[in-house]
Amino acid sequence: MEQTLLEVSHLNKIYKRKGGPDFSAVKDVSFTLAQGETLGIVGESGSGKTTVAKMVAGMLPATSGSLVLNGQAMESRRSKDMKRNIQYIFQDPVSSLNPRLKIKDILAEPLKLYFNLRGEALNSRINELLDDVGIPQSYRDRYPKELSGGQCQRIGIARALAAEPSIMVCDEPTSALDMTIQSQILELLQELQRSRGFSYIFIAHGLEVIYTISNRVLVMKQGEVVETGATAQVFHSPEHPYTQTLIQSIPKIELPYFEY
Amino acid sequence: MSKEKLLKIQNLSVAFTKNQVTTPIFSGLSFDIYQGETVCLVGESGSGKSVTAKAIMQLLPTETASYPEGEIWFNGRNLLALHEQEMERIRGDQIAMVFQDALSALNPVYTIGTQMVDLIRLHSKEKVSKRQALEQAQQLLEQVDIRHADEVVKQYPFQLSGGMRQRVMIAMALSTRPRLLIADEPTTALDVTVQSNILKLIRQLKQQYDMTIMFITHDLGVVYEMADRVLVLRQGELVEAGTRDDIFTRPSHAYTKQLLNSMPRIYYQEQTPGAKP
């Protein structure tokens, strides 16, 4: 955990409504993300988690506020390199892959776009990416529908890896998956972080997942940040009443830890 | 807990036929549920949890589903041998079900009040006027902690929040005072705070009505909070069954252990987040 990689200040998202007051989906959200850090965002549905994530990734314009990546302000029209630097992993692993493209073509898109790879160089890079996420190279000619949900999510991760970003925004990447698959995907993400030094912004409504993977946690409620702090601190001694309610609501398994 | 068997599934097989090809879903499934207990069925997608529930309710599509073998004994009667009319009386009357997705389980074009009134009048032994039924409906909604029940009966499902809709579903399931409540992932789509309220409500109503509950979930935290006994399913096979404490402290089957190890946990003793201690 070293220098600040991303600095988000006073981010707002306001939706205009006809014949009614405007709706603030995100209100004055500020946070920083350090190199190699995982920041978890928790909150109930409608709390603005995904809106924040999409604004960070440049998929949704912010109404106001600033985003500074590596000391450079990100304008609403981002440079190609800034787009490359922040990649997104989606909740639904199947619908986030183009059903009419083969796996190799899905992975080729960012490689061609950002690195202008062609021919043999492209081919071998695709194979490397498949190795990185634990998918057999023989799957390159398959279509997404021929893969399981967990395998599709691995392809989604490989596609994000292809851009060689410094930040990965993971929006509920495991909530559509079975538990044993979920733990495999989380392990893959952690391992990639160790070897490549990514920073993650990690959204999940499953608080146990956030606890397992995050260094720091941001708690959101109705568009606002109500609490932020180191994971252990937020989970073991929450300060804000809302965070306390949230933590108390987690179904508890009151047993000491052991490997089964 | 009395040791009377309420439900006995014996050597049950289910198969689906499509385009003249018959695919067995599972075979030889056997387990019992005793009066007054809460049994949790856990397993991953495709393990047969929901098919088991729907087989008990006889809600699998009759054109495609078949039961090559086995018996489902409920309260001394084999449900597989009953006529549809007899089954209709048991379904809803004695066995009720709460689904994961309350929005699609409720009829979108009728108000909550209309749907509840129809249900109450259909299942009632004596004649009930619409007005009486509406009063009963409001009482039921109040029992599941819905305030302003008089307003809610006039609303349509889409106007309610997810937690409210799930409460309405539970109120409808309870309207007939069923002996067995089958809850199929009732809180999976809900936020944790709402989930915790719904689980509390189910536990409290179970006491009040002396119900037996079959609870389907993949969330082991929920299992720990709810279950007296746990059944672990995998690809249509019952791999392990035991009391909650046995399953969580002394799991014997490798798959149960794998499931327990894969669950992300918050450690209240050890304080080392980010890595397994």
TrEMBL record, chain A:
Any single Pfam family the record assigns to this protein: ABC_tran
Organism for this UniProt entry: Paenibacillus antibioticophila
Listed transmembrane segments: none
GO terms classed as biological process: peptide transport; transmembrane transport
Keyword field contains ATP-binding: yes
Classification via PANTHER family: D,D-DIPEPTIDE TRANSPORT ATP-BINDING PROTEIN DDPF-RELATED (PTHR43776:SF7), TRANSPORT ATP-BINDING PROTEIN (PTHR43776)
Family label: Belongs to the ABC transporter superfamily.
GO molecular-function terms, A-Z: ATP binding; ATP hydrolysis activity
Domain ABC transporter: 9-247
Alphabetized SUPFAM superfamilies for the sequence: P-loop containing nucleoside triphosphate hydrolases (SSF52540)
Keyword ATP-binding in record: yes
Organism superkingdom: Bacteria
Name of protein: ABC transporter domain-containing protein
UniProt keyword terms in alphabetical order: ATP-binding, Nucleotide-binding, Transport
